[in-house]
Structure formats: structure tokens, C-alpha cells
Design brief:
By secondary structure, the protein is an alpha+beta fold. The chain has two helices and six strands, in the order ββαβββαβ.
Length: 77
């Protein structure tokens, strides 16, 4: 099982959330968005500049900056 941070997933690939390294308000926001362990996340697209990145999470599309998505560890599916 290959582990990497969410920002490293290529477009079109999916990963399963393993853990969050975020703390405080950012951690709460990520949990509220559905980024809890065992959640499957798909990279939908990257902006032309590479930041933010659009992710498909539990039927919704959300955009996260790279600095925030680096705090989410996933296993490649």
C-alpha cells in the first residue's frame, strides 16, 4: 500500500484517507468536508497554476489549496 499526501495524487486517480496531520480549525474543516479515515477521494482537476486542486469527496466536489491537501495522508487505490 503506497502512502502519499493528497496533493501528490495525479488527476483521475483515487486514494483512501488514512490520517490527517492538520490541527485546530483546519482539522475541523477537513473533517466537516468528509475527509475522515476510509473515505475515498478522487482528483478531478488542477487549476492551470496547479493550485487549488478540485477533489471528489462523497458525491461533492471541493477545492483545496496544496498547503492544506498536503496535511491529508492517503493510500493509492
Amino acid at each position: 500500500m503506497e502512502k502519499l499526501d493528497l496533493s501528490q495524487l495525479p488527476v483521475g486517480r483515487r486514494g483512501k484517507v488514512i490520517s490527517l496531520q492538520a490541527e485546530g480549525l483546519i482539522r475541523s474543516r477537513l473533517l466537516d468536508l468528509g475527509l475522515i479515515p476510509e473515505t475515498v477521494v478522487e482528483v478531478i482537476r488542477r487549476s492551470p497554476a496547479g493550485d487549488p486542486i478540485a477533489y471528489g469527496i462523497r458525491g461533492a466536489i471541493i477545492a483545496l489549496r496544496s498547503e492544506v491537501s498536503r496535511l491529508v495522508t492517503v493510500s493509492l487505490l
